[in-house]
Amino acid sequence: MALSLGQKAGWGLADMGVVVFVVVKQLLVLTYLTAYLGVPVGIAGFVTTVVLVFDMITDPLVGYLSDRTQSRFGRRAPWMFFGVLVMSLGMVGLFSVPAGLGMGANLAWVVAFFVVATIGFTMVAIPYGAQSGEITQDPKERSAMTGFRMAFASIGILIGGAVIPGLAGSMGYAMAALLVTPLMIGAVWLSLWSIRKAPRVEQAAQVNLTGMFALVFANKAFVVLVLLYGVMTLAIAMITAGLPFAALYLIIDSGDTLLSGAATALTTLSLMFAAFVVGSILSQAVWVLLSHRLGKVGALVLGLSLYVVLLYALYTMLPSVNVTVIAGMFVLAGMTNGAYQQIPWAIYPDLMDITRRDSGVAIEGAFSAVWLFGQKLANAVAPAVLGLTLAAAGWQEATGGVVPQSAEALHALQMAITLIPAGILIVAILGLVMIYRPMAGRALA
């Protein structure tokens, strides 16, 4: 049964709520610890990584349990319904550190609520990813669904990367996070309602945990794609984690002498994210069309190649005093990033079909858990890599404003958000062309 336009768009809507938290954890937690709580950047990066590694441990369990869940609402909906509540509570809590605590207590507070939020995120993200392989087996429908998903995700990026920082500059992070939680919860709940009549697997999977993941890892093309998607994500996560620092130190409006503090810099950050989101939204239909014309892998390689070119151009332009020109570059960055956002998520459900065809078992939750492993590992490693890179170059932490940085530290930041990610993307491109495409062609034949 073909999905209606409303079902495709409604399914995609949930990612708007999920991505708000994804951007917050990638973009703002490290900055919050270093620029507002005075935690040294190396320690902050390590702590952030530890929490995100813990998050990966919960993925297989949630994937397994969601595959084995049986309810009148299907296998996935109960997890998503309650998970978004847990995620929202944790996000508000981690920015609600009481005043007057020492560094150790500040860290303990943030870590505790960060753990709660990431558990909630897993409860939503794993079942949500599983739905893409469950409600349709049509590859073109999946591309269209993913196009809607990433368009809504772009709005989530704008909220997490522009609205929350903008509000935080005037009313504080905790209040800003609290104001967007109804939107996060509403997006997920409305999505569940919109696809309530879509096809779904009612019967709980009877395979045990070991058997489930043995079937997943027997799908070699899928495993290679997971690894390559993790490589891509490492590049993007480094850019995302470094952008708040770039807004403070590398992007300075020529109309000002110097950004006076973090609150002023968040205005620049908001502008960059708004430009990025515009480019991403504009590109979604283009990448769906190119996926049909060039094939999904061909379109992805094209998008990543353009991304590499753009990052090199951005390297040559930074530091910059022309915010307008840099915002234009971020529009282009959003357009190239659209390929990374959309196409891998449209590819991997096609690979689930191979295992379902060969084994007769529907274990989309297990696939979703492994799929997110590479992404989460990269997101966990990126803040630590960035923190160690900046610390090695002599980066100085702050407690509410900009502080003088050495030329070496600023150059390290410039490299960390341009040329280093570009090199990582080149590795992913080579892997897609030389390893994944031949392997997937044989598996899907």
Automatic annotation (TrEMBL):
<feature type="transmembrane region" description="Helical">
    <location>
        <begin position="107"/>
        <end position="126"/>
    </location>
</feature>
<feature type="transmembrane region" description="Helical">
    <location>
        <begin position="377"/>
        <end position="395"/>
    </location>
</feature>
<dbReference type="GO" id="GO:0008643">
    <property type="term" value="P:carbohydrate transport"/>
</dbReference>
<dbReference type="GO" id="GO:0005886">
    <property type="term" value="C:plasma membrane"/>
</dbReference>
<feature type="transmembrane region" description="Helical">
    <location>
        <begin position="147"/>
        <end position="167"/>
    </location>
</feature>
<keyword id="KW-1133">Transmembrane helix</keyword>
<feature type="transmembrane region" description="Helical">
    <location>
        <begin position="222"/>
        <end position="252"/>
    </location>
</feature>
<feature type="transmembrane region" description="Helical">
    <location>
        <begin position="173"/>
        <end position="193"/>
    </location>
</feature>
<feature type="transmembrane region" description="Helical">
    <location>
        <begin position="264"/>
        <end position="290"/>
    </location>
</feature>
<comment type="similarity">
    <text>Belongs to the sodium:galactoside symporter (TC 2.A.2) family.</text>
</comment>
<feature type="transmembrane region" description="Helical">
    <location>
        <begin position="79"/>
        <end position="101"/>
    </location>
</feature>
<feature type="transmembrane region" description="Helical">
    <location>
        <begin position="297"/>
        <end position="315"/>
    </location>
</feature>
<dbReference type="InterPro" id="IPR039672">
    <property type="entry name" value="MFS_2"/>
</dbReference>
<feature type="transmembrane region" description="Helical">
    <location>
        <begin position="321"/>
        <end position="340"/>
    </location>
</feature>
<keyword id="KW-0472">Membrane</keyword>
<dbReference type="GO" id="GO:0015293">
    <property type="term" value="F:symporter activity"/>
</dbReference>
<feature type="transmembrane region" description="Helical">
    <location>
        <begin position="12"/>
        <end position="33"/>
    </location>
</feature>
<feature type="domain" description="Major facilitator superfamily (MFS) profile">
    <location>
        <begin position="1"/>
        <end position="440"/>
    </location>
</feature>
<dbReference type="InterPro" id="IPR020846">
    <property type="entry name" value="MFS_dom"/>
</dbReference>
<keyword id="KW-0812">Transmembrane</keyword>
<protein>
    <submittedName>
        <fullName>Glycoside/pentoside/hexuronide:cation symporter, GPH family</fullName>
    </submittedName>
</protein>
<feature type="transmembrane region" description="Helical">
    <location>
        <begin position="39"/>
        <end position="58"/>
    </location>
</feature>
<dbReference type="InterPro" id="IPR036259">
    <property type="entry name" value="MFS_trans_sf"/>
</dbReference>
<feature type="transmembrane region" description="Helical">
    <location>
        <begin position="415"/>
        <end position="436"/>
    </location>
</feature>
<dbReference type="Pfam" id="PF13347">
    <property type="entry name" value="MFS_2"/>
</dbReference>
